[in-house]
Specification:
Organism: Rhodovulum sulfidophilum
CATH architecture of the largest domain: Alpha-Beta Barrel
InterPro entries: Biofilm_reg_signaling, EAL_dom, EAL_sf, GGDEF_dom, HAMP_dom, Nucleotide_cyclase, PAS-like_dom_sf, Rev_trsase/Diguanyl_cyclase
Keywords: Membrane, Transmembrane, Transmembrane helix
Radius of gyration: 61 Å
Structural class: alpha/beta
Helix content: 55-70%
CATH topology of the largest domain: TIM Barrel
Largest sheet: 8 strands, mixed, barrel
Strand content: 5-15%
Shape: flat
Pfam families: EAL (PF00563), GGDEF (PF00990), PAS_7 (PF12860)
Protein name: EAL domain-containing protein
Number of helices: 26
Strand order of the largest sheet: 13-14-16-17-18-19-20-21
CATH superfamily of the largest domain: EAL domain
Length: 855
């Protein structure tokens, strides 16, 4: 390989020697062709300049002669004729004014001006006489002088007539003889102008011809000079500038390290340019040879240095003397060292001590850490470990021997470790709340069952939020998610450190309680959770009340495996919700039977909706004062082949939970409006709307469709809402109620006095009626406070122009009590039981008769 390298070098040296010989030969010959060419070009330029100067001087003389003739002859003639014409116009105008003036002072002024105009006219004639005129011009001038004298004579005759007082003759002469004479003068002036302008035009044409000739000759000379200049420049560029620029560019590229720089090829050139090209080629060969000798070694060194410097892994190599030979920037960055801490030449002991100060060694001292690595290196063993850094982070380290010492490779795996930990966390935790998920909760139950005993069981509590779906439907999922996070925080606050809180999904949460006396511990925790969930939640300006239900199963008593405990806690939760929500119930074996019954009820209800197995019954409503029937409340009944007539109290809660209340509510509106349309026009019908319906904007379309299909007057329809609709009422609910009111539909607040009644509803809502709950009606005779509340509500509603209806009147005494309290209308079994639509139509003509009832 060395011989292969030397052979082209020798060849380049021989070529360089030959070039130097040619350069010396050219210099001895003394050739200077470039100087000769430049001298010839200079002589050519001098000749062109002298020729152009002579030609320009001749043309300037010709143009000057014509211009002088224009200035000295034509222009004075034009000025003299112009002065004659102006003087004539002024004199004629003054003459016409003179014959119209009677004041002697004005006449004297005009005469003076006329004399001046005549003098200007004569001055113009005299100037014209001083110039050389042609025969035609002289003839016209003489005719002009004769016409002028005749014009003045005519004016003189007119003046004498005026002086004698012959005004009529003077005016006639002015119109005839003076105008004729003036016309002759103007004609002569016009002829003189034409002759003078013709002479001036001839001189101008001659000047134009001379100018065109001078311009053509000058342009030709310039073009010839330009062509000669371009030819000279082309010769200089091709023979001198271009080769020099090419040689200069090649030398600059060579100086910048571009070995591929190409010198121009100049065959047969023996002048200065040829000598310069040969010298540049010799210089290039010597430079390339010098670079070629060092290129291979430098390339190998750069490749190794770049690989070590830019590799993402930290690298440190130590020699057999125990000193750092190679290290890179990545190693210093991974262990937060300064470049000097791991620079070449640093002793092995110092490097290990500095690493020990950065690593979490556990119980090892820095000396033990360094000694252990040194012993591994001394034995020639390989070591692979993951080190935790004191500043946080994880580093994977490989230490292995090399032929001349040992090396360490370090990789920062902090992000990978964090990512893996995050994946493990996500696999076991709910991403929204950060609580453990069902999988992690099941593992915790396994451990809780294994640790618990019959005397100290673990409790599993299932928590379900009440009215959470309404929040999502009305305020959006963003508010719902924020609510779930707050619920998770309250649940975490309610338990002890030993307990576990998890989220299963949706609005379902679960708790494991350990180490408590049961069932007292679980009951206390359940009640505490219910109280916390009942407290208002403040989210983005919304005050939300939801509540919750809790079901409890004890392990191992209610199951010895995860599946049994979860199923039984779920059954207890269903029982708590069925018992009216907001309750905490423990599992008992009878819940299995109830659960199967609920599942059967759910299946049958779905089939009933598909087959439209529902009918409407109507409870009559009477005016207390007149005893007249004023309407009826629509009550939907489910006709089941096995159960018979199923009350709404049984199937409506399940319909709401299953989402079937929307089609059922629309069907109830449709049937009630259709039946009421067959009643007398003064009877109205009341239809209950569930909170789920009111929170839907589509309920407006359901009402409008039912009214349109039946033809019922909207004022005969009354919709009843419960206080549950108003717990979290927002702009959407108020907008729905306002829209119904604008249609003419009346709004009634049902079951007033129960739940979370607020007198603020009477002010905030456009209510037409309030219905006193049956629980107050039953206590009117026995509880003075109940009677006082009913009277207060009736008085307040009367002041707000809101009607009051008493529900559940079952005795004559109750009817008398509600009438005395101020109720306007009443309904109940004492007045009439629910019946078919035809029975309501039959009662329309009768008066209220207590205890009559409806079959």
């Amino acid at each position: 390989m060395e011989n292969d390298l030397r052979q082209p070098v020798a060849q380049r040296l021989r070529d360089s020697g030959a070039r130097r010989g040619r350069i010396a030969s050219v210099l001895r010959g003394g050739e200077s062709s470039i100087l000769n060419g430049l001298g010839l070009a200079a002589a050519t330029f001098l000749t062109l300049i002298l020729g152009l100067g002579a030609l320009s001087l001749g043309q300037i003389g010709s143009v000057t002669a014509v211009s002088l003739e224009m200035r000295d002859v034509a222009l004075p003639k034009l000025l003299a004729v112009n002065e004659i014409e102006i003087a004539l116009d002024a004199h004629a105008l003054l003459a016409r004014r003179r014959v119209q003036v009677t004041d002697f002072r004005q006449a004297a002024d005009i005469d003076r001006e006329m004399r001046r105009a005549a003098a200007r006219f004569l001055t113009g004639i005299e100037r014209l006489d001083q110039l050389t005129l042609g025969a035609r011009a002289l003839e016209v001038e003489q005719s002009l002088e004769a016409a002028w004298l005749e014009y003045l004579a005519a004016l003189d005759r007119v003046g004498r007539l005026y002086e004698r007082g012959a005004l009529a003759d003077a005016e006639a002469a002015m119109q005839d003889s003076v105008r004729v004479a003036e016309a002759d003068v103007r004609r002569s002036v016009s002829d003189l102008v034409d002759v003078v302008q013709a002479e001036a035009a001839g001189i101008s044409a001659a000047a134009e011809r001379e100018w065109q000739r001078a311009r053509v000759l000058t342009l030709g000379a310039l073009l010839a000079g330009l062509a000669a200049t371009l030819l000279t420049m082309r010769w200089v560029v091709r023979r001198v500038s271009r080769p020099l620029l090419a040689i200069s560019a090649a030398m600059r590229r060579l100086n910048r390290g571009e070995d591929a720089a190409i010198l121009p090829v100049l065959p047969g050139r023996t002048d200065e340019i040829g000598i310069l090209a040969e010298a540049a080629a010799a210089f290039r060969d010597s430079v390339l040879e010098a670079r070629a000798l060092a290129a291979d070694l430098e390339l190998q060194r750069e490749i190794l240095a770049a690989s070590v410097r830019n590799m993402p892994l930290g690298l440190c190599m130590l020699d057999d003397l125990g000193r750092v030979a190679v290290s890179n920037r990545a190693l210093a960055e991974i262990f937060d060292l300064s470049p000097a801490d791991c620079a070449p030449g640093v002793a092995q002991r110092d490097l290990l001590d500095r690493l020990a100060a950065r690593v979490d060694r556990g119980r090892k001292s820095a000396g033990e850490f360094s000694t252990g690595i040194a012993a591994t290196v001394a034995r020639g063993d390989q070591m692979t470990e993951t080190w935790q850094l004191m500043a946080g982070g994880s580093v994977s380290v490989i230490i292995q021997p090399t032929p001349d010492g040992w090396m360490m490779i370090a990789e920062d795996i902090t992000e990978r470790v964090s990512h893996e930990a995050n994946i493990r966390h996500l696999a076991r935790h709910d991403p929204l709340t950060g609580l453990p998920n069902r999988r992690a909760f099941s593992e915790e139950i396994d451990r809780a069952i294994a640790e618990a005993g019959a005397e100290c069981p673990a409790a599993v509590l299932f928590v379900d939020l009440d009215r959470f779906k309404n929040v999502n439907d009305t305020l959006g999922h963003g508010i719902g998610d924020a609510l779930l996070r707050q619920v998770a925080a309250r649940l975490s606050w309610a338990v002890r450190d030993a307990d576990t809180v998890a989220r299963f999904g949706g609005d379902e949460f679960a708790v494991i309680q350990r180490g408590c006396v049961q069932p007292e511990g679980a009951r206390g925790l359940g009640e505490r959770i219910i109280a916390l969930l009942f407290s208002p939640f403040e989210i983005e300006g919304n005050s939300l009340r939801i509540g919750g239900s809790v079901g409890v199963a004890l392990a191992p008593g209610d199951g010895d495996c995860v599946a049994d405990v979860l199923r039984n806690a779920d059954l207890a939760l269903y029982a708590a919700k069925a018992a009216g929500r907001g309750q905490c119930l423990f599992f008992d074996p009878e819940m299995n039977a109830r659960q199967r019954a609920l599942q059967k009820l759910e299946h049958d209800l779905r089939q009933a909706v598909l087959s439209d197995a529902f009918v409407m019954e109507y409870q009559p409503l009477f005016d207390i004062a007149s005893g007249d029937l004023v309407g009826a409340e629509a009550l939907m009944r489910w006709i089941d082949p096995v159960r018979g007539r199923v009350s709404p109290a049984e199937f409506v809660p399940m319909a709401e939970e299953l989402g079937l209340i929307v089609p059922l509510g629309a069907r109830a509106l449709e049937m009630a409006c259709a039946d009421a349309a067959t009643w007398p026009a003064h009877l109205k019908v009341a239809v209950n709307l569930s909170p789920v319906q009111v929170h839907r904007v589509g309920v407006i379309e359901d009402v409008r469709a039912a009214l349109a299909a039946s033809g019922l007057d909207p004022r005969r329809l009354e919709v009843e809402i419960t206080e549950g609709v108003l717990l979290d009422h927002g702009p959407e609910v108020l907008g729905t109620l306002d829209a119904l009111h604008e249609m003419g539909v009346q709004i009634a607040l049902d079951d007033f006095g129960t739940g979370y009644s607020s007198l603020g509803y009477l002010r905030a809502l456009r209510l037409d009626k309030v219905k006193i709950d049956i629980s107050f009606v039953r206590e009117l005779e026995n509880d003075p406070s109940a009677a006082a509340i009913v009277r207060a509500v009736c008085s307040l509603c009367a002041s707000l122009d809101i009607g009051v209806t008493a529900e559940g009147v079952e005795t004559a005494e109750q009817l008398a009590s509600v009438a005395a309290a101020g109720c306007i209308e009443a309904q109940g079994f004492y007045l009439g039981r629910p019946g078919a639509a035809e029975i309501i139509a039959g009662l329309a003509g009768g008066a209220l008769q207590g205890g009559r009832g409806v079959a």
